[in-house]
Amino acid sequence: AAIKKYQFDIQVKNVSRLCHAKPIVTVNGRYPGPTIYAREGDRVIINVTNHAQYNMSIHWHGLKQYRNGWADGPAYVTQCPIQTGSSYTYDFNVTGQRGTLWWHAHILWLRATVYGAFVIMPEPGTPFPFPKPHQEFEIVFGEWWHADVEEVEKQGAIMGLPPNMSDAHTINGKPGPLFPCSEKHTFAIEVELGKTYLLRIVNAALNDELFFAIAGHSMTVVEVDAVYTKPFTTQAVLIAPGQTTNVLVQANQVPSRYFMATRTFMDAPLAIDSKTATAIFQYKGVPNTVLPALPQLPASNDTAFALSYNGKIKSLNSAQYPANVPLKVDRNLFYTVGFGKNPCPTCVNGTKFLASLNNISFVMPQIALLQAHYFNTKGVFRTDFPDKPLTAFNYTGAPLTANLGTATGTRIGKIAFNSTVELVLQDTNLLTVESHPFHLHGYNFFVVGTGIGNFDPANDPAKYNLVDPIERNTIGVPTGGWTAIRFRADNPGVWFMHCHLELHTGWGLKTAFLVEDGAGPDQSVLPPPKDLPPC
Ligand code: C2O
């Protein structure tokens, strides 16, 4: 194992896209930020120095941070922010994980521009469980706003204002040549006929679930969220914000130039579809003057494709990479995912729009939850988050005006060390046109079941896949449906769980789990680093 060191200087830089220049927050002046490369077993040390006028914190999305929540990064959950002019060193081990993950700012909406890939190679001498690719490329999706994203965030906090649509999708920070002034902001890869390539795809977009396809070429999915999958071939990939997907692509078509493209998936037709980003997949020796062909992407509201695609994703479950699904559950949780309205004298229309789990909208504390837990500071959070909704109702059939009442509070669930947890996330609002990509920090979980309509505790568990369900860190809760996940709570600390649509996180669609220390010698939260930012 090696020590990999990185320096992240948070700097504001003028960047122009689509004929608009604006100052954006960057890492080392780069947009997107640098890729972190490590091997399974390495120790990674990243010093973050904040030269920007915004507070900062960085999350290493999907890294488990065993006993070491101090390195996880969500502001006011595991640390207080790194103030302007200050530094903090994220120091962690990459244990038992290999594949593509990513990192991003975890405060305000700054992840709009502060993000990058995190590539973990297998241990030396351990090959991939699929044919060795000739070359690898990172493909990171994002969104570009002409507006200041912090202004967009404020706007989104109040209902009744127009939707906070970005102006373009991007591939590695570039929208591609279908947008004005974007010829030089076009990502391209060069391939050789007969060779196989690994694309490490990350969806770093703030609010859009995305389709991705390459004209004329199929892809074989081999990994999601740094977990190997049973390989399957597809014409298009579907990827929610927070998720990662590795695919193999064979350069086996007529040598030419082909477009790769990404656009939004929603369960309703999009009012406008003018955000499609493109990049170029170019065979060696083909001149740049050849006009590329556009891929056939699924329709933006192709829910049938989405259901079928997600159903194909299964853990590899080999002797070397078994899926150790908890078969017995110690703790059953059932959380509704919905929207509500609370009175708000200062807001447009006199009401404030909120999103909630079990009708509780999460309020961020002033002191990081993990700090409050570790130092036993009282009054920062409550551990009485209900295991199920206070009143059962027809979650997907009730009138849309039902169950809008929403409590607010910094309330989290407390879980015994090493207990096995099943959490059913039940969407309640048919108005939603997006699946909610839920992300749990500190863990991977197994996605044991999913369905449309109301979860049926009498019959649905019998249909669970407890053999080779996919293990991941971010999973969509379908519109008007539910998803059941299981995990073993073997990582003590305080771990955030939230919808990875930034708009919804801002409305309160989040909570955390306090996983208690175990009694054993290596089963408690590690002491905090000396440079942990003060609150
Ligand atoms: Cu990728 Cu809490 O986030």
Describe the structure.
The chain has 535 residues and is mainly beta. The protein has three domains: 3-121, Immunoglobulin-like (Sandwich); 135-312, Cupredoxins -  blue copper proteins (Immunoglobulin-like); 331-515, Immunoglobulin-like (Sandwich), CATH 2.60.40. Helix content is 5%, strand content 39%. It is built from four helices and 32 strands. It has helices at residues 149-156, 303-312, 369-374, 502-506, and strands at 3-17, 20-27, 36-39, 43-50, 58-61, 87-93, 99-105, 115-121, 135-144, 168-171, 188-191, 196-203, 209-214, 219-224, 227-234, 236-239, 244-250, 257-265, 277-283, 331-343, 351-357, 360-362, 407-409, 413-415, 420-427, 436-440, 445-452, 471-472, 474-477, 481-488, 493-499, 510-515. The strands form seven sheets. The chain has a six-stranded mixed sheet, with no helix packed on it. Strands 21-20-25-30-27-28 form a six-stranded mixed sheet. CU-O-CU linkage is lined by residues 59, 61, 74, 104, 106, 242, 439, 441, 496, 498, 500.
